[in-house]
Amino acid sequence: MITAITSSNWPKSAAQYDGFRPLSGDALFVQTDHDKWHMQRKRLAPAFQPNIIDAQYPCFAKHLTHYVEYLDIAARDQTFVDFSLLHVILTLDFIGEIAYGVNFRALANVSDCRISQLFEIILPELMKCGLFPLRAKFPILKKTREMHRAIAELRQMAEKAVENVRHTDDTSHENYNKRSKKIFEILAK
Question: CA-to-CA distance for 41 and 39, rounded, in angstroms?
């Protein structure tokens, strides 16, 4: 019985995901239209081939080394470390590099990292919107409006990062085939 429950493809409840739409839009992880989800998943699949994942290990090791160095300094100086924030920062640096080809240097600028500051505004309110989807649709509360503004700023930053990478690629076509495709390129198709 448990195997049947855990291995079945259960339909997603649209109401459950509506609250997360302000940040995710129609992204793969909150897609309720099965055909659209299938198309998005198929487009993203090349980014998760074993050879692509294997090629990302050196990048991950580099960022993980910086992470451990940060912890070593904190231990030496006996300073407080917010592990939740630190994990978000590590993820930002790693995803930034593998998905966009950009080193955000978030770990080097933990307290000044604008992306992290935006997530601190977005995530708590987004969780509430996930529980109460109308909260996102009708942003009458100040925190919800702040979340929408932070999401808009985050999207502008992402669009700028994509533009910068595309500009770099446009000016270096000779190196284009030598590097692996970035995730944003796969999703942009």
Answer: 5
Please say whether the beta carbons of 147 and 122 come within 8 A. Answer: yes
The CA–CA distances, whole Å, from 139 to 53, 108, 156 equal 40, 35, 20
Helix, strand, coil share of the chain (percent; to 5) = 80, 0, 20
pLDDT tens-digit map of 75-105: 999 999 888 888 888 988 898 888 777 778 8
Pair 181, 122: CB distance under 8 Å? no
Q: Which residues contact 187 (CB under 8 A, 6 or more apart)?
A: 40, 43, 44
The pTM (predicted TM-score) of the whole model is 0.65
On whether the CB atoms of residues 12 and 125 are closer than 8 A, the answer is: no
Radius of gyration of the chain (CA): 19
